[in-house]
Amino acid sequence: MRIRNLPALLLSLLMPALVAAGPVRAANDSFSTEEILKGFEKTVFGLEYRSWSWRPYLVKKFTQPVTFYVHSLSRRDRTRVVHRFVREIDRRIGGLKTRITNDPAAANFEVFVVDRAQYVPVVQRDIYKNDRAKVPGRCLVRVVSGRNGIKRSAAVIVSDEGEFLFNRCLVEEILQGLGPMNDNRDLTHSVFNDASRHSRFTIFDQIILNMLYDPRIQPGMSMKQTKPILPLVARDARRRVR
User: Which helix (H) or strand (E) holds 142?
Assistant: First the structure.
């Protein structure tokens, strides 16, 4: 589930499921080119809640290294798991560089790991900046984006409601914080589908993210602008994903 409430702020809220660290093992030729192209269009363009979003049908991506900081607030320390997934992203997505910092002021992607009792107050205080804001969803990511790309993202992930929820939250919210903001029930191979049971960084989603971070795909491009080059981008992304 997603909520957008400021012109240049993109807020996405995840519903029940959320994904696990580490890629799903599946052949990268398990999907047709048509499925991959549709998957890219359905995740990169559009948002679940469109009315308040800033230009939802344009490409959103980081154009600089993504520096992560983990706020470990839950009783169980999940920092090493989050760091492992960040390093996995760095290895799996061409055109994207990730870093981990010990200084929250140096981060442009903050990850808050909380227990359920902390979820609402942390979202209100650190994400919405409004202690009266309603907080739906079970986990969320907030993306601040402009015409030159994503400026910063922040994800809130619940730790104490089972491994499946934690892992799915971890993977989907962090990946969505990198740009593919939409969910679609037709994406059976993807974590970008609230009805799916995926809890890992699937091969399908690795291809989508590699397409998004291909240098030929630029922030602010429309679906129409990407269409002529997207088949070549998909071909090259499929080759990169093993």
Answer: strand 139-146
Question: 171 lies in a domain?
Answer: yes
pLDDT digits (tens, 9 = 90+) for 152-197: 999 999 999 999 999 999 999 999 999 998 877 787 787 877 666 6
What radius of gyration, in Å, describes the C-alpha atoms of the chain? Answer: 16
Please tell me the total count of domains within the chain.
Answer: 1
CATH number of the domain that 135 lies in? 3.40.390.10
CA-to-CA dists, residue 59 to 12, 74, 75, 169, 212, angstroms: 15, 34, 37, 23, 8
In a domain, residue 127? The reply is: yes
Helix axes 203-212, 79-92, angle to 10 degrees: 60
Residue 80 covered by a domain: yes
- Residue 115, judged by CB atoms within 10 A of its CB (0-12, 13-18, 19+), counts as middle
Strands (E) in the chain, as ranges, are 9-14, 20-23, 66-72, 98-100, 109-114, 139-146, 149-158, 200-201
- The model carries a pTM of 0.84
Per the document, the length of the chain is 242
Half-sphere exposure of 184 (CA within 13 A, CB side): 20
Beta bridge partners of 153: 109, 143
CA 6 to chain centroid, in Å, comes to 19
Q: How far apart are CA 136 and CA 72, in angstroms?
A: 21
Residue whose C-alpha is closest to residue 33's, from 236, 240, 196: 236
Which domain range does residue 143 map to? 9-22+34-219
